[in-house]
Predict the 3D structure of the following.
Amino acid sequence: MKNTPQRLIVEQTVQKMHDHPTADDVYEQVLPQLPTISKATVYRILNALDEEGVLRKIRVPGSADRFDYQLSPHSHIRCVECGRIEDVQSLFLPDSGWVSDAKGYQVLRCMMSFEGICPECLKKQK
Ligand SMILES: [Zn+2]
Ligand SMILES: [Zn+2]
């Protein structure tokens, strides 16, 4: 994929968004700079950047994919009430080497995540 200005702006925007935005969130952020861009294009660029390892796509079961500027290994916790996703610097991210050995796969990623209720939603419940 070529380094188009569109792609550059999408990439720089995600680097600045540290709250695991959805493709829709990214689209709204780039719109002032790229008024003619379509959601489909933003989505395509985001997926290409994920495939190239420039950013990381987080698949969320039953909800829109999120995008993460942070590439270092970490896992996530998602609030089931408000949908926010935060980083968890996990101490026990599994080493994928044994999976490759046991199954013969080239392991691309391990998607470990937690679900819970965030402190703010807990406060509201009280
Ligand atoms: Zn919450
Ligand atoms: Zn993250």
In short: Strands lie at 56-58, 66-68, 75-79, 85-88, 113-116. The longest helix spans residues 39-51. The mean pLDDT is 90.
